[in-house]
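Annotated sample (chain length 140).
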Amino acid sequence: AWVTVLQGRKRWLLFPPDTPHAAIGMVNDKPQIPSSIWFRDFYDTVTSPSWPEEYKPVEVLQYPGETVYVPAGWPHLVLNLELTVAVTHNYASEHGPFFERMWKEVAQDEPDFAVAWYSGLEKCGRGDLTRVAPPEISDQ
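Output written by the structure step:
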């Protein structure tokens, strides 16, 4: 995704893809921790000298007019430091290792959309993409 701030400021932490999610408070099947709570509970740990170097986050303070690119697969947190207005562009690509994961997330978060998307891909002959759909979508 690309995020451009128009007004306000954002504080970002982006973790390398191999960072253990549980170690940074991102546990599958559990609600996301609000960013203000995450910064209170985890920030000192992940920025301490004892935190493993290979999992050190990239930290960004974003100002109006600046754009931050969030690479696919990078766990991240963002905290609005004041009233903030931003434009976000998310993208989905059929290339790379993340397409199958994207299918699973869409099926879980937006099941009605996932069924419609699956149907649309079938209609336009994209069996290569529907084959990786989760069973709960492809079996409907």
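Annotation: The chain has five helices and six strands.
Annotation: The first strand starts at residue 2 and ends at 7.
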